[in-house]
Amino acid sequence: MSMRSAKFCPVCASPHVEVFFELPDVPVYCNHLWRSRETARHCPRGDVKLAFCRACSFVFNVAFDPTRLEYSQAYENSLHFSPLFQDYARALAARLVERHNLRDKDIIEIGCGKGDFLLLLCERGGNRGVGFDPSYAGPPEHHQANYRARFIQDFYSERYADYHSDFICCRHTLEHIQTPKALLDTLRRAIGNRLSTILFFEVPNALHIFRRLAIWDIIYEHCSYFTAISLRRAFSSCRFRVSSLAEEFAGQFLGIEALPAAGETEPAEESPDEFKRLADEVASFATNFQNQVEQWRNKLEELRNRGQRLVVWGAGSKGVTFLNTLGIQEEIAYVVDINPRKQGMYVAGTGQQIVAPEFLRSYQPEIVIVMNPIYKNEIRQITNDLGLIPEFL
Q1: Beta strand 17-27 pairing with 45-53
Q2: Are 79 and 85 in contact (CB under 8 A)?
Q3: What are all long-range contacts of 279-282, with beta carbons under 8 Å and residues at least 24 apart?
Q4: What does the pLDDT read at residue 199?
């Protein structure tokens, strides 16, 4: 696919931006819970047209329309039901509490989801927390937490600038924002001269997507894709001094820590060789994507011809993108997910029913397609406990 001109980069305002990949007619929501197969198959759809900024390496969807998204309590993307992810979240919370001495402090989490991580921070250090998220629908006991964690069902904005804190956390939210600098600018104004306020943000690692061909991570909800270069540039251009930036969760995430700067900050010098390698990977991504899709189509056709029973494990964004990109409906009837809030619901676009792992005891699949390989051992243990020995793809 040839590159074509796009608009200005939302991070650095460069005009050197080119579209390199298109994925039309995808579900607008991957994590909206649909209560029937019919409504799931007629879900709202939109187009993905990814553009690459040759100045800062930021990737964004030029076809994104924020008015098509409305996050509500029907939105469910919590990963905290996975023991592996729980271990990661607990270790991350412990590390942040120890590194920044977060004890008896005020904490804000932007995009807190169901409040799991904010409560970890509060419980670990005896802190007070305020979480912002329009999709928040946690249990009543969250409001009675020992450390006075409370939740506001709204987006964080200027209207909450008087909520002061010692630590601001934002995990897996910035990639949903079309103009990420707008949020960072809002935070910098709200912080003012309280220069000891610490920020921690976590986002998907775009380099992992393009270098490792994690192609099912391309979704409409993610209008912004950050490399380490573009994430650092976004923070420094909004008068934050980056103190740490590292890959997390086996390279799938980027975690950045920053402090407000007293004046303007200069972006760090980046390696030209690394930038060129990234540009080359982006340029070849469309072809690599199509090759991988064709390989999967051939593999699924082979399995269908054998009459083998398949399930997909993971009803999150990866599973939804996999099923919709390949146009799979009746060929795979069920998607397994350990999140009980998803069970009994239906997959956006293709309409598979989402079932609990226990369902497999009677269904007896021969093949389990694992959407995120990091969970393979955890999934294998669950299937072993159910007395199943399927093949994993």
Answers
A1: antiparallel
A2: yes
A3: 279/52, 279/54, 279/57, 281/210, 281/211, 282/20, 282/52, 282/59, 282/210
A4: 98
Residue 91 three-state SS: helix
Q: Domain residues of the chain, as ranges?
A: 83-266, 308-392
Q: Tell me, which fold does domain 308-392 have in CATH? A: Rossmann fold (3.40.50)
Here the tokens at position 116 are: 């799991």
pLDDT tens per residue across span 78-109 = 778 899 999 999 999 999 999 999 999 999 99
Nearest to 351 by CA among 330, 380, 365: 330
Q: Which CATH number fits domain 83-266: 3.40.50.150, 3.10.450.50, 3.40.50.720, 3.40.50.700?
A: 3.40.50.150
What is the C-alpha separation between 58 and 185, in angstroms, rounded?
18
Q: What is the pTM of this model?
A: 0.94
Summarised one tens digit per residue, pLDDT across range 329-388 is 999 999 999 999 999 999 999 999 999 999 999 999 999 999 999 999 999 999 999 999
